Amino acid sequence: MYDRPTGQAPISRTAMAYVLAGGRGSRLLELTDRRAKPAVYFGGKTRIIDFALSNALNSGIRRIAVATQYKAHSLIRHLGRGWNFLRPERNESFDVLPASQRVDENMWYLGTADAVYQNIDIIESYDPKYMVILAGDHVYKMDYEKMLQQHVDSGADVTVGCLEVPRLEAVAFGVMHVDASNRIISFLEKPKDPPAMPGKPDVALASMGIYVFETKFLIEALKRDAAKPDSQRDFGKDIIPEIVAQGKAVAHHFSQSCVRSTHENEAYWRDVGTLDAYWEANIDLTAVVPSLDLFDQDWPIWTYNELTAPAKFVHDADNRRGVAISSLVSGGCLVSGAGIHNSLLFTGVRVNSYSHVDRAVILPYVNVGRGARLRNCVVDSGVQIPDGMVIGDDPELDGRRFRRTEKGISLVTQSMLDRMNT
Questions:
Q1: pLDDT digits (tens, 9 = 90+) for 134-188
Q2: Binding site residue list
Q3: Domain 11-286 carries which CATH code?
Q4: Which residues are annotated as a binding site for alpha-D-glucose 1-phosphate?
């Protein structure tokens, strides 16, 4: 559980959350052909970006900006529909900031730091005292107020949100080498031999892509970086290493601010950046006690709620019974004489008679034809599964027709099905 600091006004009300949501997420393969990774569906009714935005809102931050770039239409549409309730007359704001060549007519966002630098004038117009820089493509629940409090108390130039991960797995992360007081001694990007934490030889501190700055300090750092011709305009590669070397950078442990309900035993954070990780995180939600509690009303995940009819299950005959077991079924779904097991159905999915769905993640408005059998797969939104199609039984056949991972998960898109008929 989490406890808010008492006896003082929340620092979050003087902060702005700035979400970096321009990345493609190419490791999700065709799932990001039409949308940026932060706009990918997750958990039955939300998008990945809703977690960072909900954390900001639930933490008390009422000024939020989102920088977009790659194939941003789906994301911008979602933000406009689901996050339009913040009101300027209540000293609240919500800005969507697409790459729009505002600094140079030949420049899009060149990196994560540049995505903030190009919008300095917008930030200054709101005059926040602190900036919380967030990645928009991770799934977790976190109270940023606690990180802001540590930043103020420590007198740091930057506070970096960090995860404890097994040291040998940290080769895929930016790793913080810290001293006993959590001051960052060095920042190493995907090191071959990650440094261990003090007193924990088998554990390393990995960056979450979350940074807290005092706004004036951040703007000065961004302007210095923009003047360097050899900079990659990136927080992890340029801004943070420079502060580590010349200023004071402090690590904030996610365990100190993660939000857990009584049903969550461990701090939950996932980078669902591969198809296997995406499938596993969604399927985990169908467990009796999942690692992530989406039913926690004390820390709701806000999103755009479509107006749909309730989910409906029809027919009750042998081999034609509408039933779902250990599954999440969203509004507007119709399970017509079909069996759903350990699966997640997003909004508006229709599964027709005599079909069987097992350990599948089915995105919005998919139609599963009569007699189909789907297992161990992710089906993209709007796909029309033909009658009698079998997915998940024959690895060789699935590999020829669809995108199949080494762990045996098939990604099915409409273009893949269309190619089968040409």
A1: 999 999 999 999 999 999 999 999 999 999 999 989 998 899 999 999 999 999 8
A2: 109, 174, 189-190, 207
A3: 3.90.550.10
A4: 109, 174, 189-190, 207
